[in-house]
């Protein structure tokens, strides 16, 4: 059975393997042992509740319960942009009109902004390629919303997600080459590494101070603004199904879109219900998305379940996978 569980320091080797598989431009999953180890340590502290709620960063692992093999990762960051700015480009429309020439033009432009302070971010979603298309990505993605729904007070009223931007067949980012590299004068990999390995001050130091007119950008770069990486199209579809919409913000390095949704309108959060657990026979029951009812020791899985008044009946194997016992609280959302 596939189970989503909290990550911890013991997952470093597995997480590094996933980082290598994720490929170029997956900024939230860098191939850096120190960064990944720090993130796993923070995940352990976050689930234990030993860090301030706004500083929590919950990393989740997708595991095959029978073998212990880690096959995916996802994350929920309680609040971004508080200890360091979270910069984006906002796509704005600048209107220009001349009464003398009787001419009006609307220009699109990119403006550096820091609008996301305090928002909760869901991200780092990556599933081993051999599991794609069988529902594993959906389970892992929606487990993040089950986590949020378990204790909403820990999270912001606005939830955001940043998607990897478009890369060409030769693995280059047209947006980086046509826009951002003009200001940062660094190889993409170095700038990408510095985002997670430094305090991010270099972003503000070197960022453009004035609007960038899209019409002055080369065609390949302008076409990449807000375009999702080919490997991120399924993730975007899952986000849109949850209720996320494009915000008009794009990543400052690869031009990938930022989508947002109100926390309490997330489809998985809205449909979630809490029950008392009953263990029994559910052979004829429909599958449902299940999770524990608290952030501490959080676990999630998709398995058959049957509501019986205030109780939810699941099979013994499912209870074992979730590490729950008869009478414990359990949450269920639509499959």
UniProtKB/TrEMBL annotation:
Coiled-coil ranges from the UniProt annotation: none
Alphabetized UniProt keyword annotations: Acyltransferase, Arginine metabolism, Transferase
InterPro entries, sorted: Acyl_CoA_acyltransferase, Arg_succinylTrfase_AstA/AruG
GO terms, biological process: L-arginine catabolic process
Biological source species: Sphingomonas desiccabilis
An annotated Gene Ontology molecular function: arginine N-succinyltransferase activity
Pfam family, one: AstA
Organism superkingdom: Bacteria
Entry protein name: Arginine N-succinyltransferase
